Amino acid sequence: MDGAAIYSLFIINKSGGLIFYKDYGSTGRMDTNDSLRLASLWHSMHAISQQLSPTVGCSGVELLQADTFDLHCFQSLTGTKFFVVCEPGTQRMEALLKFIYELFADYVLKNPFYEMEMPIRCELFDLNLLQAVQKDRVASLSR
């Protein structure tokens, strides 16, 4: 897997639709239908957890830890959710997700050709996202 800590990135609109998916792992690639199902499942789980939480003002699941992966989630104020699937115990994912949100705001939302809530097709976003993930990989390898 060439030392990659990040397996995949999903961006889900406020309605629960998958608007961006990127696979960074070399094993277990998902087809389009699988990625759509997983995004829908995560959106539903996130929404249900907000309603069932005993904590007042809960914003939903932020971290799901499993034996073989961790799933980190960041929800923007507009309801767009960013979640990354990574190796167990990977650090600094919250900061990376917030940085990805900044890239989303800078390169997608400010793009005059982007239609809100639609799939993201923006070359500058893709390039800057790849650089951010590669920097994060290098930082995790150097520790």
TrEMBL record:
Give the domain of life: Eukaryota
**Where does it live in the cell?**
Endoplasmic reticulum; Golgi apparatus, cis-Golgi network; Golgi apparatus
Where does it primarily localize?
endoplasmic reticulum
Keyword Glycoprotein in the entry? The reply is no
**One GO biological process term:** endoplasmic reticulum to Golgi vesicle-mediated transport
Q: What are the alphabetically sorted keywords of the record?
A: Endoplasmic reticulum, ER-Golgi transport, Golgi apparatus, Transport
GO CC terms in record:
endoplasmic reticulum; Golgi apparatus; TRAPP complex
InterPro entries, sorted: Longin-like_dom_sf, TRAPPC
The residue ranges crossing the membrane are none
Question: Does the record bear Transport in its keywords?
Answer: yes
Query: What is its quaternary makeup?
Result: Part of the multisubunit transport protein particle (TRAPP) complex.
Q: Which protein family is named in the record? A: Belongs to the TRAPP small subunits family. TRAPPC4 subfamily.
- Designated name of the protein: Trafficking protein particle complex subunit
Which species is this record about?
Answer: Stephania cephalantha
**Taxonomic classification, please?**
Eukaryota, Viridiplantae, Streptophyta, Embryophyta, Tracheophyta
